[in-house]
Amino acid sequence: MMRSLPYFCRGEVIRGFGRGSKELGIPTANFQDSVVDHLPADIGTGIYYGWASLGTGDVHKMVMSIGWNPYYKNTKKSMETHVIHTFKEDFYGQILSVVMVGYIRPERNYSSLDALIAAINSDIEEAKRRLDMPEHQKFKEDKFFKALQNQIMNGH
After folding, report:
1. Catalytic sites, residue numbers
2. CA-CA distances (angstroms) from residue 27 to 18, 77, 121?
3. Is position 149 within any domain?
4. Sign of dihedral through CA atoms 101, 104, 108, 111?
5. Is 93 domain-assigned?
6. Is 36 a domain residue?
């Protein structure tokens, strides 16, 4: 049971491993270590969904991978957010605000890059579907997204 959901966090978008856009065709925004390191213990690795906003921009649906990315054998835990929206340019250095409202599945390994991409696309569709539920829609309008963007925070 993840008592910490919904979980709100905010931080600067940093350069990740460079695989999201280039190798997977699914761009992600990565949080700096300080955000990852302060996750509550009951938010384990896996795939989450929720809402995200860049800077003071619009709030969009998102899906997030938290963990070690077993396919790539990462040695550092990461939080990689795919904002379900098409942006004209990258947003490194901007402030990303997210609220994680639910959990889709545990992290797993894949036998091929195609299998990984298919799983991510399935997760995106699942996130879209779940975020249309009334109990999740309310978080899109949360005051958190209108709060001071310079306040880096984690919590709920």
Report:
1. 80
2. 9, 18, 12
3. no
4. negative
5. yes
6. yes
